[in-house]
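Milestone 3.1: sequence recovery, worked example.
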């Protein structure tokens, strides 16, 4: 049957070439589309984690829901010493965050003001890389304020201008100071840039009576895929029911949910795409089989069984699909690999979609051999299934009817 199928493929050259082209284009589009969809999700996550949120963060229970100074972590050094012994923890940094009123000569605005360890913070977030004017913080920055571009515009201030700060210290006492704007950053995240300011942790601790205290501890891991295991190890090491260890899946739940919804719509689009592929190939196969009814009638008349007819159809589509896939797979893989290393750039896309967390003009791809394999496998399966209806159509004719079919 295999040799007969090969002869049929060579005899019906037009049909064979068209089937190969349909399968080739379908496989190419499928692999590239899935790569782009997965790359977009991966990029959104990585960009969001790079801005400020950690892979894992440690909080006092109720801090995220209730807030307030009574839910601060009070013995930071004891916790961080334990973190140094946990496999998979690459680094950590502590942050003391509070909300207060910043006032210039003409304008005022509420702001999240965070005391950060300047050197460590540069490894954990993108705020240093997002510098657009002035200078980044150091441990000796004193009352220098590092402010988001959106907040600077809101307050209508410029570098070296002074700002009055009013807030509550960690012991609930009144806290006030004069800050000087020393640096401006722009991450591309509109909400973050318009509400956030940073100051040296040493200086802020003295002002807010926050020595050895933290709002939370931000943790960077060696491998993002190991966060659940590292989280369990941290919980075991801390052995403290008053603390909670949260991964990015909880910290960024809104984004995770948005990505899941986007994935659902993406897979609905994929399903429609696959249905179209299936019916195009099946209908084209049916049209070709319909023109060969007489041929199959003759084959059945000389003793070819229905099983052999099915094998013949199977071998034909198997050979054509294999040829198309062998050509499409390396080309599609090369395209996805190239654009993973060199993303497509569309100027202005980040500005247009900044409210949705898009912080780059790049359209990323994700080169994943496993994903490419299952994409190709799906196309293969659809092509093989597409012969079922044409086979049933052939089977509906008796050998005599088929032999006289016009």
């Amino acid at each position: 049957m295999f040799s007969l199928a090969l002869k049929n493929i060579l005899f019906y050259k037009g049909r064979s070439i068209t089937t190969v082209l349909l399968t080739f284009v379908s496989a190419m589009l499928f692999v590239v589309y899935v790569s782009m969809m997965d790359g977009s999700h991966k990029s959104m996550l990585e960009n969001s984690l790079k801005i400020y949120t950690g892979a894992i963060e440690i909080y006092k229970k109720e801090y995220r829901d209730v807030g307030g100074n009574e839910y601060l972590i009070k013995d930071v050094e004891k916790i961080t010493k334990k973190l140094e012994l946990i496999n998979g923890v690459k680094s950590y940094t502590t942050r003391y965050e509070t909300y207060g009123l910043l006032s210039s000569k003409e304008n005022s605005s509420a702001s999240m003001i965070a005391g950060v360890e300047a050197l460590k913070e540069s490894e954990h977030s993108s705020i240093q890389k997002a510098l657009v004017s002035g200078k980044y913080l150091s441990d000796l920055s004193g009352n220098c304020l590092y402010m988001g571009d959106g907040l600077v515009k809101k307050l209508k201030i410029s570098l070296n201008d002074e700002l009055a700060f009013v807030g509550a210290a960690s012991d609930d006492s009144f806290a006030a100071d004069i800050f000087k704007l020393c640096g401006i950053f722009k991450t591309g995240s509109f909400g973050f840039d318009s509400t956030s300011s940073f100051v040296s942790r040493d200086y802020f601790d003295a002002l807010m009576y926050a020595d050895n205290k933290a709002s939370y501890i931000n943790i960077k891991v060696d491998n993002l895929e190991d966060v659940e295991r590292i989280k369990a190890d941290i919980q075991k090491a801390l052995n403290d029911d008053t603390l909670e260890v949260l991964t990015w899946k909880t910290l960024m739940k809104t984004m995770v949910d948005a990505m899941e919804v986007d994935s659902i719509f993406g897979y609905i689009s994929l399903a429609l795409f696959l249905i179209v592929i299936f019916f195009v190939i099946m209908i084209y196969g049916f049209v070709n089989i319909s023109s060969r009814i007489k041929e199959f009638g003759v084959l059945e008349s000389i003793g070819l069984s229905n099983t052999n007819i099915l094998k013949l159809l199977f071998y034909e589509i198997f050979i054509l699909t294999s040829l198309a896939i062998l050509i499409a797979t390396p080309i599609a893989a090369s395209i996805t690999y190239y654009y993973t290393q060199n993303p497509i750039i569309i100027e202005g896309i980040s500005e247009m979609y900044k409210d949705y967390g898009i912080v780059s003009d790049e359209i990323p791809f994700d080169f994943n051999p496993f994903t490419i394999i299952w994409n190709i496998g799906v196309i293969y399966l659809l092509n093989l299934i597409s012969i079922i209806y044409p086979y049933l159509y052939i089977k509906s004719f008796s050998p005599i009817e088929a032999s006289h079919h016009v």
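The longest helix spans residues 13-51. The chain has a mean pLDDT of 83.
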